[in-house]
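User: structure tokens for this one?
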Amino acid sequence: MRRNRWSIVTVKHSAMWILRRCMKTFVSRPLKRWRHHDSRDTIFSLSSGYGKCGVAVIRTSGPSSQQALQQLTKLQTLPPPRQVTLTSIICPTSGELLDRGLVVWFSGPRSFTGEDCCEYHVHGGPAVVSGILQALGHLKTLRPAKPGEFTKRAFQNGKLDLTEVEGLGDLIHAETEVQRRQALRQMSGDLGQLYHRWSNRLIRALAHVEAFIDFSEDDHIEEGVLSAVDEEVEKLQKELEEHLKDNRRGERLRDGVQVVLAGATNAGKSSLLNLISQKPTAIVSSIPGTTRDVLETTLNIGGYPIIMSDTAGLRDSEDPIEQEGVRRAKARVTEADILVAVVDVSNSSLSQDFILAHLHSMCFSVQEDGPRNVIVVLNKMDLLSQDNLSTVQELCQQHGLPPICLLSCHTDEGIGDFLSILRQTLETIYGDPLQGAPTITQTRHRFHLTECLDALRRYDVHRQQDLVLVAEELRIAHRQLGTITGRVGAEEILDIIFSDFCIGK
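Assistant:
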């Protein structure tokens, strides 16, 4: 009976082996084709920003970089690699002097792209830059670079994996200190190294399962091998689950933290938004219900990128337009990463119950539903009596309430305290990207990690049924991790990733 079962498993395994070999050949061809195509031409582009500037950097990459350098500078020998050389830059067709600048030669593979590269550091006037780019364009072996093509060649030549490429793209687009730190850490390879370690563990587990399938009949493999694989798969499952339970912290820091201002009409939400953004983003009026849609502005709070939204006042209304505004406001409240509950305290009897009633009116309970990260802003403090001010101070010291900030949008008093509380809340939730384990920063990472985890969970389902299916699930899990770093199956996502880069990078 065992031999009949073994024969069936052998047939299945042989078929899977043939299929796997075909797939490996298919997957490996695109990268080889790209390398062959790119090795025949040399690209050039302006790598610094456009417009008038002190210094502009023009870059070439490819086998004709040496020829182009010598034709533009008339140097008989190449400059020493990675050393700055002052020289004249001449038009190769007319012999006209275009500029005097610095050139830096990088011989492959010790360059950003892994190919022969050259950088021309010239004066940043538009006429100078245009003249040198035209001179390079006159050389038959050179062509203008496409957006992201330098970085694409670095990936294809093994200088960067896809996570490092995406980190570089995020670094270029980083607008705040925290975004810069997160992008720099990813570009340095921390995230990719984590996935590579998981990938290597999966390869080892897969090798042990396939070895057991091939050789256990001849008693060359002990039963304990599969138990060790079971333990390894269980550990990987737990690590992946922990990695995915990050509250999308990296993605929020990359795209911006959603901070929503909500409250009743005329509570001062629009005034607070204008005060923080230092510009008239929202219309402010004493007429209730002025704001009827969601208004957004991007801000940098203590290095953290936030998208602050002003919403329609929460109240019952017969106006269908205002009803739609209230609906959108409630929807935005449920999506908020941090909710700022703005309360008008000018004509109210303040108490803990009063504040909780306002929070409940925003369609969630602090203890149960909705956003957990709440800041209560008690606005119009300039209209409070001294007795009410004392009451507020006592409320701020009570437990069971979110952080409370007392301010006046009319006099600007208390705005510093509010920004300080908001910054502390951001630090508590999102921390420092340079500390702890690297976080997921891309939606595609989360998708492939989830697929990898699902495959490992299916491993448990097939474990007692068919080892060939077990091996295939491990192979799927490994392929999903490889897709993140670009080791396998990367062709369909390369154009999307590199299209976000600017020309010259």
